[in-house]
Amino acid sequence: MTKRIQWLDSLRVYAFALVVIYHLGSSFLPAGFFGVNLFFALSGFLITGKFLDAVLKEEKESFWIFLKKRGGRLLPGLVLMFLVTGLFLLVASPDLRVDYFRQFAGASGFMTNWYEIRSGGSYEAQFIPHIYVHTWTLAIEMHFYFLWGGALYLIARGAKSREGRRKSRPARDQVQVRLSVLILSLVFFVLPHILMIIGSFLGWSTSFLYFSDFTRMSPFFAGALMACLTGMESVAPPVRKLADDLSKGISWALFLVPLVLMAVLSFNLSYEDPSTYRWGFLMVDLLCFLALGGCRILDLQYDAWKEIPPIHYLAQASYGFYLFHWPIYVALSTTPLPGGLTIFLTLVLASLLAWLNLNLWEPLVLGRKLARVFQKEKRRITNGAFILAILGVILVLIQGMTAPPLLSLDNQLWSSSLNQELDQVVDEGEKVKEMIAQEKLAEQQRKEEEAMLKKARAEGFTMVGDSVTLGMRKEILKAFPKAQVNGKVSRFLHQGPDILQSMAKSGHLKEMVVIGLGNNVYPSFKKSCAEMIDLLPSGSRIIFISPYQRDANKTSDVIKYANYLPELEKEYPFVTIADWNQAARTHPDFFKGTDGVHFYAHKDGIPLYINTLKEAIAKAYKKPAKP
After folding, report:
1. What percent of the chain is modeled with pLDDT above 70?
2. Which residues pair with 577 in a beta bridge?
3. In this structure, is residue 627 part of a structural domain?
4. Which residues contact 64 (CB under 8 A, 6 or more apart)?
């Protein structure tokens, strides 16, 4: 039996606390996801350390047995989470079930990370978070098992073939194997960080940088490196000597200081901050490496000490709690329950389910001995669990088959988009009607334009925008009947130049251009603005509407873009800013109960948006046009 290293459970509980606090309150701990790196580092350390011990003992284990053991650790709890989720979805918003079968397939097939990359999802960057988004960590862990387990198996086979050509010398074999594993671990540690840093400077999507196997496997190999240097049961002699020479105070500092620094980084970085990807993850992985080293030295110095039972239990139950807490929290968050009560119920229910998973469900599924409290009623409990599992499967199928095809917000936007397409068809017919009643319509238009905005030109303006524009299209056309409003869901700022160029070539670009983009923006927004200004024909004016996102971090590209627009207005006389960001911030009540971007459910927000646009148009006509 492999020797238990003390203090590893404490590291696991610490990582567990960071992640749970982040999930339940990302505004309090915006980079608590760094705890995942520590989880990964622990996994890499344990798997690599056990492998090196097996080489020394001349124990052989096939790759498939290794995968079976890893699957036995991950799968039972995952299955129970699926069954429990079907129950909580009964009280949750139907929006959580949109695309349910794909979410389920991603989680059950250990491909959630690539599902999130494909859908552009995250814990923060979506109107409705995916109920299984947290299983992205399981996906990467399973991929690591295949990659690293296969690599270690090949290294072990190579050592075995050498052994067949000479007399077995386990200690010497382990030195050679340890060196091979060390070099390979170093390569796999460095490459993902290089890729992440390059991608962050090239503007790759945050979802790819955060969820991709190619950028997030480094912490596993930080743990593997430490396992090579220190060993587990087979302790490297230099490490044992270091443990004898170091004072216990320095050892405690080596263990605790990295954890404190990790907490500091968790408070000061965030998901959207470029620094998180340019140096934050690298720093955290190095801190995980040091914390594991401190842990190993403390274990050697305090050989007789044992971690307290609550720490050991929390470490054992942490996986189950991690699985259950996110779906419960997301489901309850869509109900009318107050936020504090939602968090309390999440903690209580997830704790109870984690206990049941550890003491009842996993032993039943894996054929292990049940906890003492369940021993007397084992048969009844087994039959009851089987019946409940069938009911859970039925419930999951019902939830998936009755899932709505679109989010309620998407449905509204889709309807607006359809109306926009219909309006384009109607416009062609209106040209014929306009030829018949041109004088009457011209007079009516002049009166409407005079009442709407004194200095607005009769031909209106061209407006290019995203989902906010699309949702407001009907109201904008009501206030400005001659406007051309082109909105689309998830449209990025950098698409603006291509749209303007296409309109200019087709002769549909009016002299007044309004850009309602910016909720989806890359760091290269200055370049995109310059391109749109250059494409603007002579005699034209352009208005940029500053975006508003209630929950946007001050370091996000959305806020940087909004703060940049006044500088653009000062630089170009024919540029005007419609400061929706400032207007919206003075009325936070308009966004209560919304995603913090779209306000259509609050009717008072509509005239505020229209008035902001009117004031900008009036201001623009007082300025000179582009020469």
Report:
1. 82
2. 544
3. no
4. none
Q: Any idea what DSSP says for residue 316?
A: H
Domain count, the chain: 2
Q: What was the pLDDT predicted at 88? A: 84
DSSP state of 626: P
Query: Please, are residues 345 and 331 in contact by the beta-carbon 8 Å criterion?
Result: no
Which of 368, 401, 434 is the last residue in one of the domains?
A: 401
- 409-457, pLDDT tens digit by residue? 454 544 555 456 555 655 655 665 666 556 655 455 455 445 456 555 5
DSSP letter string over 504-566? HHHT---SEEEEE--SS--TTHHHHHHHHHHHSPTT-EEEEEPP--TT--TTSHHHHHHHHHH
- Report yes or no on 109 lying in a domain: yes
Confidence of residue 58 (pLDDT cuts 50, 70, 90): low
pTM for the whole structure: 0.66
Q: Within this chain, do residues 587 and 483 fall inside the same structural domain, yes or no?
A: yes
End-to-end C-alpha distance for the chain, whole angstroms? 82
Question: Are residues 436 and 499 part of one domain?
Answer: yes
User: What pLDDT was estimated at residue 441?
Assistant: 53
Backbone angles phi, psi at 120, to 5 degrees: 70, 30
Residue given tokens 């699926």 in the structure block: 82
Q: What is the per-residue pLDDT for 505?
A: 85
Query: Per the structure block, which two tokens stand in for 168?
Result: 């077995």
Name residue 580's amino acid: W
C-alpha angle 329/334/337, rounded to 5°?
80
* CATH number of the CATH domain containing 415: 3.40.50.1110
DSSP code per residue over 283-299:
HHHHHHHHHHHHHHHHH
Residue 303 within any structural domain of the chain:
yes
* Alpha helices in 98-135, H assignment, sequence order: 100-108, 112-119
The residue ranking higher by pLDDT, 519 or 376, is: 519
Domain boundary among 350, 385, 401: 401
CA 289, 291, 297, 300 dihedral sign is negative
Structure tokens at 23: 């999930």
Judge if 105 and 55 occupy the same domain.
yes
* Other beta carbons less than 10 A from residue 168's beta carbon: 11
Measured CA to CA, the distance from residue 139 to residue 141 in angstroms comes to 5
What would the pLDDT profile of 514-538 be if each residue is shown by its tens digit? 999 988 888 888 999 999 999 888 9
Residue span of the structural domain in which 269 resides: 8-401
